[in-house]
Design a protein that fits this description.
67% of the residues lie in helices and 0% in strands. It is an all-alpha fold. The protein is elongated.
């Protein structure tokens, strides 16, 4: 029996030494949670919508608002503008008449940037009739009136030019009143009309 105790002692000591002197096993941390993107890139959503993905009129309005925001490179991308125009026209034909003012406004913005000023003016005026409290609609109407004022001025039609600039001034004042913190709406009319003519 004594031999047996001698034989177990080294095993017991080795076990105790392993528990006391060995470095602790690393604690397994849970992997970080996978955070899904809140939305897909707008270009992909646009592409999928044209291939049959169903979007509500509200979703089309929000998508087009994001793609057409000032400073977005999409404003200079003819392919994106053409695709977005198709999507907006499709949404406007749907029986759902909600968000119609926003859809018309965004279609007007597209046509403005494409140089289709007559179409743009009509769509923006229709949007304004549905929602007269949208600063962006007034801003683009101001740009259109100022641009037309410049055209009349070059043609020597001073009375018509003054009328257009007066309308532009009224629209710009309304945009400033509705969104006083927006620096874009603080431009003067001459800068506004010249930026319209370059497009």
């Amino acid at each position: 029996m004594w031999n047996r105790k001698i034989w177990l002692a080294p095993i017991l000591l080795a076990t105790l030494a392993g528990c006391v002197g060995a470095p602790p096993a690393p604690v397994q941390q849970a992997p970080p949670p996978v955070i899904a993107e809140p939305t897909q890139p707008d270009q992909i959503i646009l592409e999928e919508a044209l291939k049959g993905r169903t979007l509500s009129n509200g979703e089309v309005a929000e998508l087009s608002d994001r793609l057409l925001c000032d400073g977005n490179t999409c404003l200079n991308d003819e392919k994106t503008m053409a695709r977005l125009e198709i999507l907006l026209l499709k949404a406007l034909k749907s029986p759902d008449k909600s968000h119609r003012a926003a859809l018309l406004q965004n279609l007007g913005v597209i046509h403005y940037h494409q140089g289709q000023f007559k179409k743009a003016r009509q769509e923006l005026q229709n949007s304004n009739e549905l929602n007269p409290r949208d600063a962006r609609t007034h801003f683009y109407l101001a740009r259109l009136f100022a641009q037309q004022g410049e055209v009349y001025q070059r043609q020597g039609k001073q009375k018509l030019s003054r009328q257009q600039f007066k309308r532009a001034s009224i629209e710009m004042d309304m945009a400033r009143k509705l969104a006083p913190g927006n620096p874009t709406y603080k431009q003067d009319l001459q800068t506004l009309s010249q930026s319209g003519l370059r497009r």
